[in-house]
TrEMBL record:
HAT C-terminal dimerisation domain location: 607-670
InterPro entries: HATC_C_dom, RNaseH-like_sf
Protein name: HAT C-terminal dimerisation domain-containing protein
One Pfam family cited in the UniProt record for this chain: Dimer_Tnp_hAT
Organism annotation: Dreissena polymorpha (Zebra mussel)
UniProt feature, compositional bias: Basic and acidic residues: 35-50
Source taxonomy: Eukaryota, Metazoa, Spiralia, Lophotrochozoa, Mollusca
Sequence segments annotated as region (Disordered): 29-67
Superkingdom in the source lineage: Eukaryota
PANTHER family: DUF4371 DOMAIN-CONTAINING PROTEIN, RAS-ASSOCIATING DOMAIN-CONTAINING PROTEIN
Molecular function via GO: protein dimerization activity
Length: 700
């Protein structure tokens, strides 16, 4: 009986790899001399074999590893459960599609123990690459070559360390406590290049000084790229806003807007600590910082802020003080803040609307402060088969929160009523009883549905105003469109308000203590509350968005208003006033305008589209008109980018990192907001910048 031959069962990973690595470290390298010695031994063995009488050979080779294979394949090593390649392991040459830890011959043994397996591995691209690396390692080199190689290895190690640090910065992970553990993890995964960073006990690339210097170097490189683009622009715009961080330090975020390839770009510039929030302090801090960055003040065409008195005060505000230094400066109040003020103040003259606003906030806090009440509300929503929703907080400082708060409450109103009644009856909760009494009223339901008709249009307008790189000339058409919608709602109430009386009737039928209004009561509500609120809202918006004479001059670029026949002197007076305001040569600018005006006629371009066409195509040929169009594209619309910068700051500078220095905070925010994806970063440039900051013992 012939016994079936069983292949050795491969054993996993760790014990095999450990034993093999010990053996590899004890074995000599595969130098040319060792290979030639093995070849000479092979020749002697072959001569000895020829002198012996021939013996009968078995037709079948015994299973398992054949030690004679090492004569032709000196790189193969037998391990428990298979074979491994010492060259591929030494140089970490894995197939491109193999995951770290699972590559045969390198991470795990090859379990196909046959000569064909050795031949196949020897022909692979990864093994050929390992042979070249081994030959290069064994090649004779002089001292200069060895130093050059050492420098390359040290730089490669620093680049790997910079990549790890950059990833932490980009993901807003605390770098001081996670840098070394991340390096250890990368080494554990097989990245041995980091070991070359260790150049002695006091030069390991692990100190906090190295980490902070690397952080600052990466932040400065990214900021310098932004400054290079801003300096190349004919004008730039500054947008600022002020807040307080976790350390109770006043911080001012600064964003810059400039032209790149003819299109406006809004980028984070820096965050500046302030000793106080006086206009003089803010102005001095801002102008000093711009001079340090070599940004000429006379090329600042506009200034954007949130509209606080310290910013826009007519006599001593920041904008007024900047205008003394830059006479042509245009000051613009954030349009999103204007809209929020217009909407928030529409209810000031209506007593019931103020009470309604308070009840919306009380309902949110009633559930937000109690897990038991919140869970009870969810159970009722499941029983009534209503959406599983949480009430949303309505904040004056959050521009879209009122829309979300009223919409959410409208969708789960029966569940809220049922929950309030339950809390009042079973737990004798006086707050629940009071909220139920006020909200279970037809006026409350009508007001809620009225707000659900009006607020979504304001939310859409606010979102458009807060869009990144929004152009100011787009704002007026958006405002006019929203006013037209509100006028339509004033004449004909929206679908939610029209359905509100039927909703009240259904709630009454479900047993809630709410009275169904008569037609006269609904009409009285419409006349006394609905129409006054919408009219006041429209009046506030019109007042907050007046036609500014200087900004309206940019409508000269609006080709939809061009005459169909002879152009005559169309737009020349507007262009002349703009050129005079920004100290541009009037005659040259008018000459450019007359040449371009004919090309724009009939194109049906809006003002922002026409100005962008000029900045993209006519920079060199019509330079004066190009500068004028650039101003129109760079006018600040909102400070929403500054608000986003505050959110980034609060995610980075937390309570556990409250001692962070301003320079480090600047670098971390710059990388987080403006840093490209890690694949697109030139880390060699960053390492060189770090290396050149001061004399270092590390030689590249």
């Amino acid at each position: 009986m012939i016994r079936s031959k069983k292949r050795p069962v491969p054993v996993s990973g760790k014990s095999v790899i450990t034993n093999f690595l010990v053996r590899i470290n004890n074995e000599p390298s595969l130098s040319e001399s060792s290979i030639s010695e093995r070849e000479s031994v092979q020749d002697v063995a072959s001569d000895h074999e020829t002198s012996q009488p021939p013996t009968k050979r078995s037709k079948q080779r015994a299973s398992g590893f054949d030690s004679s294979w090492k004569q032709d394949f000196p790189w193969v090593t037998e391990v428990e459960g298979g074979m491994m390649c010492s060259l591929c392991i030494r140089h970490m040459c894995r197939p491109a599609r193999s995951a770290i830890g699972s590559a045969p011959w390198v991470d795990v043994p090859c379990t196909w123990i046959a000569r064909d397996s050795l031949n196949r591995h020897q022909r692979t691209e990864t093994h050929s690459q390992a042979k070249l690396l081994e030959a290069n390692r064994l090649a004779p080199r002089n001292l200069v070559g060895q130093l050059e190689e050492m420098g390359c290895l040290q730089k490669s190690a620093r680049i790997a360390a910079f990549k790890n640090l950059y990833w932490l910065m980009k993901q807003e992970v605390p770098h001081t406590t996670n840098y070394l553990p991340l390096n250890d993890l990368v080494k554990l995964q097989g990245c041995s290049i980091l070991a070359n960073m260790n150049q002695g006990q006091n030069n390991k690339g692990e100190s906090q000084r190295f980490v902070q210097e690397a952080v600052l170097a990466m932040g400065n490189i990214i900021r310098q790229d932004i400054l290079t683009q801003a300096i190349d622009s004919p004008w730039y715009t500054i947008m600022v806003d002020e807040t307080t961080d976790i350390s109770v330090i006043s911080e001012m975020t600064v964003y810059i807007r400039f032209l790149k390839d003819g299109r406006s770009q809004t980028r984070f510039l820096s965050i500046l600590p302030l000793n106080d929030c006086k206009a003089e302090t803010i102005t001095t801090s801002l102008t000093t910082h711009l001079r340090e960055l070599h940004l000429p003040l006379d090329r600042m065409c506009a200034f954007g802020s949130d509209g606080a008195p310290v910013m826009v005060g007519s006599k001593n505000g920041v904008a007024a003080q900047l205008r003394k230094l830059v006479p042509h400066l245009i000051n613009n109040h954030c349009v999103a803040h204007r809209l929020a003020l217009a909407a928030g103040q529409a209810a000031n003259g209506l007593t019931y609307m103020l009470k309604f606003k308070d009840i919306i906030g009380d309902l949110y806090r009633f559930y937000a402060k109690s897990a038991v009440r919140t869970r009870g509300l969810h159970e009722i929503q499941e029983l009534l088969q209503e959406p599983d929703l949480k009430l949303v907080e309505a904040k004056d400082v959050r521009w879209l929160s009122h829309d979300k708060a009223t919409t959410t409450l409208r969708r789960c109103l029966p569940s809220v009523y049922k929950s309030l009644d339950r809390e009042a009856e079973e737990r004798n909760d006086a707050r629940a009883a009071g909220l139920a009494k006020f909200s279970q009223n037809y006026q409350f339901v009508l007001t809620l549905h009225m707000m659900c008709d009006v607020l979504p249009h304001l939310s859409d307008l606010s979102k458009a105003m807060q869009a990144k790189d929004a152009i100011y000339t787009c704002i007026k058409p958006l405002v006019l469109g929203t006013l037209a919608i509100l006028q339509g709602l004033l004449n004909t109430p929206g679908e939610h308000f029209q359905a509100a009386p039927d909703r009240v009737a259904r709630l009454h039928a479900d047993g809630f203590g709410i009275t169904v209004p008569t037609e006269e009561q609904v009409q009285h509500f419409t006349d006394k509350l609905y129409r006054p609120f919408v009219q006041q809202l429209m009046s506030n918006i019109e007042e907050r968005f007046p036609d500014l004479p200087l900004l309206q001059l940019f409508e000269a670029f609006n080709t939809t208003k061009f005459p169909t026949g002879d152009m005559g002197n169309h737009g020349e007076q507007d262009i002349k006033k703009l050129a005079d305001h920004f100290n541009l040569p009037v005659d040259a600018t008018l000459h450019n305008w007359r040449q371009v005006r004919g090309s724009l006629q009939g194109t049906e371009k809006k003002a922002e589209e026409a100005m962008e066409w000029v900045t993209i195509h006519l920079r060199n040929s019509h330079d004066q008109l190009y500068k004028l169009a650039a101003v129109g594209l760079l006018l600040p619309t909102s400070t929403a980018d500054c608000e986003r910068g505050f959110s980034t700051m609060k995610r980075i500078k937390t309570e556990n990192r409250s001692r962070m220095k301003s320079a480090v905070l600047n670098a971390l925010m710059t990388v987080s907001i403006e840093g490209p994806d890690i694949e697109a970063v030139d880390f060699g440039k960053m390492v060189d910048a770090w290396h050149q900051e001061k004399p270092r013992r590390t030689v590249f």
